[in-house]
Amino acid sequence: MASLFEKDIQFLKGVGEKRAQLFRKLGVDTVGALLRFYPRSYEDWSQPFSIAEAPYDQPCCVRAAVASPVSESRIRKGMTLYKFRVCDGLSVMQVTLFNNKYAPQILKEGQEFLFFGKVAGSFTHREMSAPLFEPASRGARIRPTYSQTEGLSSRMIENAVKNAFLLLPERIGDVIPEDIRAQYALCPLRKALQEVHFPSGMAQLEQAKKRLMFEELLILQLGLMSLKGRSRAENSMRLRISPVRDFYSLLPFTPTGAQKRAVNDCLLDMTEGKSPMNRLIQGDVGSGKTAVAAALCYCVARNHMQTAFMAPTEILAEQHYRSLSTLLETAGIPVALLTGSTKAAQRRAVLAGLENGEIPLVIGTHALLSDGVAFARLGLVITDEQHRFGVAQRAALASKGTNPHLLVMSATPIPRTLALMIYGDLDVSILDELPPGRQPIDTFWVDSGKRQRAFRFLKQHIDAGRQAYVVCPLVEEGESDMASAQEYSRRLREEDFTGYSIGLLHGKMKAAEKEQVMADFTAGRIQVLVSTTVIEVGVDVPNAVIMLIENAERFGLSQLHQLRGRVGRGKDKSYCILISDAQNEEAKRRLSAMCRTSDGFQIADEDLKLRGPGDFFGSRQHGLPDLKIADLLTDVTFVAKVQDTARELLEADPNLDAPEHRGLRAEMRRLFANVGEGGLN
Fold this sequence. Notes:
- Helices cover about 35% and strands about 20% of the residues.
- It is built from 23 helices and 22 strands.
- Strand 6 and strand 7 (about 125-130) form a beta hairpin.
- The longest helix has 27 residues, at about 200-230.
């Protein structure tokens, strides 16, 4: 099997140089990769229906004989219809094909065929348009359907897979050790590959998928555990006191029950845990994660240790700095900011204060990872919006201390099974309550024809003293035909919103410019802020009550939910308006989900269904490689079993050096080869 990953797809029978280029578009460059290119769905031709019993408006297979000659009629340039009747001995059905010039030669009267498609018409008049068909003599079976690209159909891929199997030996090395296969009743690898591509029955297909999912999730978990490499040494940073009540007295509000539970979870880890805390705080937009982090920073400082708090953007780091310094410096706890824009003199002062221990809390961006940053006694590492940081970056910050406690926070809700795999060695606390006074956000999807109506809605609220965001997918005009922030802000200023204060914010601006724009918006000097997704996380302006998103179909569900979370942060009713002329089904489903629910965990589940786990965050950002078959919406207990198996394997053989584990090690390296983490050594 391994050698087939070295055989170029071009040299497989029936492929050749031109077709190989199409296969490479699908990520298939070798024969081995083709065998691991699993069908995305299946067509069940195994139990054909009679014409009378065939269900309406759902794909099904009908067995019938051609009962009339194929008639040809050209209805317009480029469109020719081929019509004929079929009969199963009891009922008749009309069949229509489009632009299939070979139909009259293939479909001979009296010959029996299998037709796969949707049956329409009435009880007395049945018809099927554009079905797939093949001679009944080939046998009823379950047929694979593959992801395709222009010029490379699913049937072409199916034939290539058949040829690939001719090169596969009858006995191949199995990456899953025999004892594990026996423990979980997993079929051998060759049988799993045969059945997943060409199922002999639905039960055999499910067994094959179970085995391949187990293998892929096991390899994924082994890789993630190896990448983390986080020492589970004795907790040398144990907190001696937990002055959390003193912290609560500093707050201008009463924490929610969920916030208190999360703080208590963390403090228990940090005071009584044998190993350093390793916890994920997960909550929907606006659930109050920053207050939880602030409580821990306070307690760590009171225990004479330091906290490093890393945010993905300067805007978010600066916002955290403003809110935490206002809160904590009144209690005598200095807070410093360190980003790429920090002036040289200020940077030197911060570095000195961290090294001598005078600064107990530093908030920053990736600048915290630079070589010159050293701590006197680093006790806690916090990463916010952590899916934007790779595993290696989190580990690099933690390495600046001696096994410090680790807290990662995310406002991108993650389905439970996905969280189990990405954060397999983290304990999870969920903030499932919103602070009192938070308003639900009404979301509407309109097409571009209603844009002016949406503008009037914005003006009503702006005239009442409120503010609004407008988000565009692009920075500059000319990048595509989509809305650009620069052109949009000019048009609003000169045409639709003359007399109003319009601001512009995007990632190509200098840090000082961005900071000034956000300061003006926060202070109310800007009424409408036109922006790219640079405001996706963290920006908190309670007076902003409308989020209008242009070309909304261009954004993922979780990203749309994050953008929507920039409003509804004050006492006033808030709204999100999605403008899109999208016609494709996936985009319509995504936008409809946004209008249907504001629950971030429901959004996350829907997003995972639509995009798959490998693209849930973008593998280059968070270190999760693309998966080919594993469905992380599957049973949590199944995922947990895989996780336990991975942990037991690494405990017994940390480097997977044993002969029976070398196949797992090779597959682990292959799976992580393209992940933006430097791969596995």
